[in-house]
Amino acid sequence: MPGYMRHCRHCGKLIPPDSAACPLCGKVRPLEPPRCPKCRSSIEAGWMRCAACGASLRVKCPACGQETFFGDYCDLCQAPLTVICPNKKCRTEQPPGEKCIKCDKKLK
Fold this sequence. Notes:
The protein is an all-beta fold. Helices cover 0% and strands 13% of the residues. Strands 1-2 form a two-stranded antiparallel ribbon. The protein has a two-stranded antiparallel ribbon with strand order 3-4.
């Protein structure tokens, strides 16, 4: 029996409950709540700091250069909030932050 349709957190439209990307707006992780980059606690759009660990939830968008909420997409230009590790042996695509989540090299 298929599950109930659920709302995409990005566009609000009803989508299948097992969607990895919204089939309507195309954005990733449409059903998962955003998580703190430091402690992985649930966070909400617009928060300045994580309620659990106090980490800043504001990052600089790699596309437009403006400060935005730490989520999957920039609040201002809608570009994906991902950077690629500068380490030639690593090249991990990840959310912007201080250091690479895989090799610990400083990100630009």
